[in-house]
Every structure is written in structure tokens, then in C-alpha cells.
Amino acid sequence: MPDDLMISPRDHRPPPTPLEGLSAGERLLVWSLRHMAQPYAGSSPARPGCPLIRHAFLQACGEDADEVMATFRAFLLLYGRSARERPRVGCPGCPDLTPDERQLLRLLALAQPSAEPNAPARLYALVEHLMRPGTSDGVLVASRAMACALGAHGLSLPVRPLALERMPLPGRYDA
């Protein structure tokens, strides 16, 4: 997993979004993603038996924790290998989201079953934008599987408006 995801350096990146205000599902995913992406010497916490990540999923998903973790690992593996650019992930404990983490959360939020008629089109457009040509079908299936696994345990992800994710540069465009 660490080869497909990259810890983000703080320079040359758009302004981050603070982690405060995230839903329980978003916090679980971001925390787990960051720990799975860490390049540990010797052993990786992304392996199926990692007690820290497993404990977090047990708290959130109960007896289905192992299945939800496996679905998340499979989704991340496919996402990391299919992305047009190597996704950048914040380090554990970092108080804000990277732009790539925001896109990943948005992708999973759009993959949830929705009564909104244009949600499938928005999901498809986002996947087409983020993934290399020819890889979108697998990412769509994996994202829907992960979204359903979260939803089955009451961990819905809000679809945040794009306008809130874009922060104006200070001092520019002031009237």
C-alpha cells in the first residue's frame, strides 16, 4: 500500500481543509487511510491483523469489522493504482485534509445510494476525472461496495459542496 499512496509534503499544496466537523465515517476513513499509507520499517499496519486499525473498525462496524476493513483495503489498492496521479495523504495526526483525501471522501460519498437523480452521473464524472482511462469501472464497483459497507453500519458520508472546498487566496479578488 505505501507504494501507491504518498504522504503529502506541506509545501506546494493548496490550502488544506480542517478535520474538525467530519462525520464519524469520514474520521474513520481518514485516520485508517493515513495509518495504512505510513511507510513503516519491518511491518506495515495495513496488513489484515493490525490491531490499531482493526480496533477502530470494530468500534464502528462491530462483528463485520474484518469484512469492512478488507473492502476498504481493496478499494484503496484499486484507487491508488488507478489514479492519474499518485494520491497524497496527510500524516497521522495532521489536523487537516489534503486535497486528495477530500476527493477520496467525495468519491465515496457520491457512491452511496442516493435519492438524488444526478448522483450517479456526478460519481461517474468524478471517477473519470480522477482515474486513468480504462480503470473507471473497477473503481466504481469498489467505491460502491465501500459506500454500502459503511452505510450498513450507519456511517453515511455527507456530499460536501465543491464551493466549500475551494478556499480563495487571501488578498486576491478583494473588492
Shape: globular
Number of domains: 1
Q: Give the topology string: H per helix, E per strand.
A: EEHHHEEHHHH
Helix content: 40-55%
With helices defined by DSSP (H or I, 4 residues minimum), what is the helix count? Answer: 7
Class derived from helix and strand content: mainly alpha
End-to-end distance, in Å? 46 Å
Largest sheet composition: 2 strands, parallel
**Strand tally:** 4
Q: Would you give an account of this structure?
A:
The chain is mainly alpha-helical. The chain has one domain (21-39, 46-157). Helices cover 50% and strands 5% of the residues. The chain contains seven helices and four strands. The strands form two sheets. The chain has a two-stranded parallel sheet with strand order 1-3. It has a two-stranded antiparallel sheet with strand order 2-4. Helix 3 runs antiparallel to helix 6 and helix 4 runs antiparallel to helix 5 (119-130). It is globular. Residues 10-16 and 163-175 have low confidence and may be disordered.
Q: Topology of this structure?
A:
Layout: E1 6-7, E2 17-18, H1 24-37, H2 51-61, H3 65-82, E3 88-89, E4 96-97, H4 99-111, H5 119-130, H6 136-151, H7 162-165
What is shown here, in short?
The protein is mainly α.
